[in-house]
Specification:
The protein has 485 residues and is of the alpha+beta class. The chain is built from 12 helices and 8 strands.
Length: 485
């Protein structure tokens, strides 16, 4: 999940909870207001009906007593109208009152006997009948008035119930609002904790680690993070790792450069000093009329030192071309066995100086698409190394083909190469302790030349058993037998 979703999601949840909180408050308040209005109106209407009933009962009582005394038909009609209105009001109260209201039911039951008692009182002709009917009517009327008073009291108790319901609803709404408020608070606290632990702390770690990059330290990746912060930490870790690697390579390159300048200056100074001395000696002998043999010896020394300088400069140029990726090859069909014989013949003085007996084992008519001068350079380097490091030991040069490859091996029977030197044998300026003067570039250049031809060079060595360098080159083929003579 992305960091944006992780941050926006809880915020949307908080907004949703706040919206639910506000909506709940509005709905609860509205429901309370509507319920209170409806109930209040109902109680008001019931109260008005009860008040009217009380007035009608009083009017009926007054009119009935007056009718008994005066016997006027007008009062009788008024009593009938009052009774009719009382019946209508009782029916309305029955519709709006609870169905199980016992007081209203008692009042309705008392209503019929009360009407009979009224009629008996109106129909009485003697004093005895009037007294009997009056007593009966009076008790029923007082019973009806008592029930009407109970209805009024019940109506007022309904108002108390409404207030109790409002208080209960308010308590529930307050509890709901408190729950939503606590939920919002917990969500905000959780969001804050997540931001601190999931966003702020990783960013602080990355910031602190970034400040340590200058000291060569690498920013560590944040594990189990797949969001933007995890991607950022991975990018920073990869970048700092590359920077550290590049910095180490730069330091190595600078150290190599310093070593190169030191070795090059030393190796170039030696033949230059010799040249200067030979030139000074040659000048004195010319000024003093030296003989031809001494002058020939001096010029020979000058030629050898100039060749040495040319070789050193050539190696330096080859290294610069290799490092710049500009090592050029001019490939052409070359008869490898003939090239090997030519190089070995040219290196005979070097081998004689090292008292090395040379043995050739060459397969005839081996042809390959190579740069003859560069392969010549490789073979000269291998023979020169064998002569310098295996003085007095026999040297064997073997050429053969197998499949689509040709193989050229130079083996000596010298002391072998130490393991510490072997690990960096093909690196620039690799030289064994106590080695003869040189830049230590021969094997490095040889490997680059062989690999540029699409081949490889291998070394086998063991202490006291000598050393063998084998060059493997592709696309080797043999000349037809007629071409070999």
């Amino acid at each position: 999940m992305s960091l944006a979703r992780k941050l926006v999601g809880p915020q949307l949840l908080i907004l949703l909870l706040i919206g639910a909180l506000a909506l709940t408050e509005v709905l609860v308040a509205r429901a309370e207001r509507l319920g209170l209005e409806v109930t209040t109106q109902r109680l008001q209407r019931t109260g008005l009906r009860l008040q009217r009933l009380g007035q009608l009962f009083s009017d009926t009582e007054r009119d009935l007593l007056s009718e008994v005394v005066t016997r006027k038909d007008l009062l009788t009609r008024r009593i009938a109208l009052s009774n009719e209105e009382i019946g209508v009001l009782l029916d309305e109260l029955a519709r709006v009152s609870p169905p199980d209201s016992p007081v209203l039911e008692d009042l309705r039951r008392v209503r019929a006997p009360l009407l009979d008692a009224q009629q008996s009182l109106l129909d009485a002709r003697s004093s005895a009948e009037s007294r009997s009917a009056f007593v009966r009517w009076w008790f029923l009327d007082q019973r009806a008035m008592a029930l009407l008073a109970d209805l009024s009291a019940s109506n007022f108790r309904g108002l108390d119930r409404i207030l109790a319901e409002v208080a209960e609803n308010r308590r529930r709404s307050d509890l709901l609002l408190l729950t939503l408020t606590l939920l919002c608070a917990f969500t905000v606290a959780g969001m804050t904790l997540y931001v601190v632990r999931g966003v702020v702390r990783p960013l602080v770690r990355l910031t602190r680690a970034s400040k340590e990059v200058g000291k060569g330290r690498v920013i560590q990746r944040l594990e189990n993070r797949t969001d933007e912060i995890g991607t950022l930490s991975q990018v920073l870790a990869d970048t700092t790792e590359r920077l550290t690697t590049t910095n180490a390579q730069l330091h190595e390159a600078l150290a190599l450069r310093d070593r190169f300048l030191s070795i090059a200056a030393h190796e170039l100074r030696t033949p230059m000093t010799s040249l200067s001395l030979q030139l000074a000696l040659l000048q004195r002998r010319i000024e003093h009329g030296g003989d031809r043999d001494s002058l020939r010896a001096n010029t020979g020394a000058l030629v050898r030192q100039s060749q040495r300088l040319a070789q050193l400069v050539g190696e330096l140029l080859d290294v610069s071309r290799i490092q710049a990726g500009r090592l050029e090859l001019h490939r052409e069909p070359v008869q490898i066995d003939a090239l090997v014989r030519e190089v070995c013949a040219r290196c005979a003085p070097l081998l004689d100086a090292g008292q090395n007996a040379l043995t050739l084992e060459l397969e005839e008519g081996v042809l390959a698409q190579v740069d003859a001068s560069r392969l010549d350079q490789v073979l000269v380097n291998l023979l020169g190394n064998a002569a310098r490091h295996a003085t007095g030991a026999p040297i064997e040069v073997k050429l053969w083909t197998a499949g689509d490859e040709m193989h050229l091996r130079v083996r000596d029977s010298g002391p072998g190469i130490p393991e510490a030197v072997r690990r960096r044998l093909f690196q620039p300026f690799a030289r064994a302790p106590g080695a003869t003067p040189g830049l230590g570039l021969g094997l490095h250049i040889s490997r680059e030349i062989v690999e540029a031809h699409g081949g490889r060079i291998e070394v086998q060595t063991a202490p006291g058993e000598g050393t063998a360098f084998t060059v493997h080159l592709p696309r080797a083929e043999r000349l037809p037998s007629a071409a070999t003579g």
